[in-house]
Amino acid sequence: MLLTRNEFSRPGTKLQPLRGVVIHWVANPGSSAQANRNFFENRKLGKTGYGSAHYIIGLAGEVIRCLPESEMGYHVGSTTYTDDALRRLSSYPNNCTIGIECCHIDWDGRMTDETYDALVDLTVDLLRRHNLDENDLWLHKEVVGWKDCHRWFVNNPGEWAKFKQIVSAKLKGEDDQMLKQELEQLKKQVEELQNLAKMKEIPEWAKEAVDAAVQKGLVHNPEGGSYDFYRFVTIMHRKGII
Q1: How far apart, in Å, are the Cα atoms of 63 and each of 4, 36, 60, 75, 123?
Q2: What does the alpha-carbon distance between residue 64 and residue 6 come to, in Å, rounded to a whole number?
């Protein structure tokens, strides 16, 4: 559902290296993600000014992508920017940020649970893929200084802090899970090598690495391993993996 290339909502300008993800509200209670996407599309007619975002999250948690992540959107245009945005983003933050619009149920900006959960998941995915963290999340107001967007988070700063904590915990939790999976795979490789042709004694050049592997719990019975096993463990130790 990408927008049509046009001057007003999808200029096709290449996005600079990503420095932030900006959270918005659509400012139209009860409207759907599709309706808001169509609003951005119709800007191509040149009658409603400039504006767009990369993603829109609907009331049921559906996510519509309006722009490629490699292209710039018009979601934080302003004549003025906060000092923090100028320092950490750029003099024109549209060129280095991704924008997410959130549908909501009332003028306070309250989101459904489905919208909120989808926002967490999308944000975590974006931050991870672009090597960013929760400190690179922004509200529209934090970028421009004057707009109450996303209104729910702007008027409830505790909720914004909580949202970033949830994102942080999920980022770190998933990182821990990935590390655990990698260690399990490493353990499997060690066991496979250990079952090859066995040596009577641990080679002198491999003892330090084998001791480290035992301490990490990767090896339980280090004696009687193969040459390839001891060589593999030594290489992993020298690289600082074990």
Answers
A1: 18, 12, 9, 17, 12
A2: 18
Per the document, the length of the chain is 242
pTM of the model: 0.74
| Per-residue model confidence (pLDDT) at position 31 | 98
Check residues 153 and 206 and name the one with the higher pLDDT: 153
Provide the pLDDT for residue 195: 64
Whole-number Å distance between alpha carbons of 25 and 200 = 68
Distance CA 237, CA 211 (A): 10
Checking if the pLDDT of 55 tops 90, the result is yes
pLDDT tens, residue by residue, 124-168 = 999 999 999 999 999 999 999 999 999 999 999 999 999 999 999
Residue among 104, 118, 97 nearest 148 (CA): 104
Assign 3-class secondary structure to the chain: CCCCCECCCECCCECCCCCEEEEEECCCCCCCHHHHHHHHHHHHHCCCCCCCCCEEECCCCCEEECCCCCECCCCCCCCCCCHHHHHHCCCCHHHHEEEEEECCCCCCCCCCHHHHHHHHHHHHHHHHHCCCCHHHEEEHHHHHCCCCCCHHHHHCHHHHHHHHHHHHHHHHHHHHHHHHHHHHHHHHHHHHHHCCCCCCCCCHHHHHHHHHHHHCCCCCCCCCCCHHHHHHHHHHHHCCCC
What's the rounded Cα separation, in Å, for the pair 162 and 1?
A: 32
| CB neighbourhood size of 157 (10 A) | 10
